[in-house]
Amino acid sequence: xxxxxxxxxxxxxxxxxxxxxxxxxxxxxxxxxxxxxxxxxxxxxxxxxxxxxxxxxxxxxxxxxxxxxxxxxxxxxxxxxxxxxxxxxxxxxxxxxxxxxxxxxxxxxxxxxxxxxxxxxxxxxxxxxxxxxxxxxxxxxxxxxx
Length: 146
Prior knowledge:
This protein is α/β, with parallel strands linked by helices. The chain has helices at residues 15-27, 38-47, 64-74, 89-97, 110-143; strands at residues 7-11, 31-35, 52-56, 79-84, 102-105. A 5-stranded parallel sheet has the order 2-1-3-4-5, with helices on both faces. The relative contact order is 0.13. The model has no long low-confidence stretch (mean pLDDT 88).
């Protein structure tokens, strides 16, 4: 079976982490984009198709929660995995209430990240398929065939 690469955006203010994590995901065959703050993340999303965002909660300027709110308002189908290195599980749960797919605590095991990434991408793909089917049914109804 051929694996279709996920289009992943990593958003974290720790540049070394982003670079290492990007290399690791790319070695797994994923297509990776990066941003080092929330504003840049929104710019990347505006210019690229992204399946999953891996988003740090604590960043200077626009934090992860505000970035998540904006992502979900503008790109509701994009899945977001919250990432925190500060033991802030409460904030991560808040993010899930706001639409994040899941969260991970730093340092996260790469195997766990890969599993959550694949599950998030699958959920996005399923959501897009339901939308396509609904649009097709709507077109059929509008054409008067039903």
